[in-house]
Amino acid sequence: ASDGLSGINQIQFSNDTGENKTWSDTEPYATTKTWTLTLGDNPKTVSVKFKDVAGNWSEVYSDSIILDSTKPTTPIVTDDGASTISITTLNASWASNDTTSGIAEYQYKITQDSISGITLVDWTSTDTVKSVSRSGLSLIQDRFYYFSVKAKDNAGLWSEVGYSDGI
Q1: Pairwise CA distance, residues 47 & 12, whole Å
Q2: Residue 90 near residue 79 (C-beta atoms within 8 A)
Q3: What are the C-alpha distances in Å from 135 to residues 24, 91, 94, 110?
């Protein structure tokens, strides 16, 4: 902030919304401030106002962000079922959610023999699509294949990995 007449010398902050805000103690003006948000994952609004040397308070300036410290839910993964007749294609779908900031991306992986077995397809993004039909595979008869899926929210937090029960 700046004041071309007398200059700015004090500042106050608030986490409140609406007209009747509770303001922090007045402190010397600075261009940066470490500020603690209210608890809980949800939208947060921080307001600031400035006081010039002549004693005049500025209008209130506010900005909002979403605080999201909770991972998305672990995806529940459904695959082709107990078996498939295809030797080149596997299918899976999944469900996960993040009620705070929303899902930004899903990634899947396909392994052979166990969830930690031979990697056939390493982590691959589907953006926000909740299913995949992966073709071009070289599947071997009487082997098990597993999908692993993880979700990332718009705050950049990854879920735990969810697994299919094997094809």
Answers
A1: 8
A2: yes
A3: 59, 9, 18, 12
Kindly report, residue by residue over 20-76, the tens digit of the pLDDT: 999 999 999 999 999 999 888 888 999 999 999 999 999 999 999 888 999 999 999
Q: How far apart are CA 50 and CA 13, in angstroms?
A: 9
β pairing state of 131-134 and 90-95: antiparallel
Structure tokens at 7: 């200059």
Dihedral sign, Cα of residue 44, residue 30, residue 48, residue 12: positive
8 Å CB contact between 110 and 120: yes
pLDDT surpasses 90 at 160 = yes
Q: Are 43 and 21 in contact (CB under 8 A)?
A: no
Q: 152, 70 in Cβ contact below 8 A?
A: no
156 CA to centre of own chain:
4
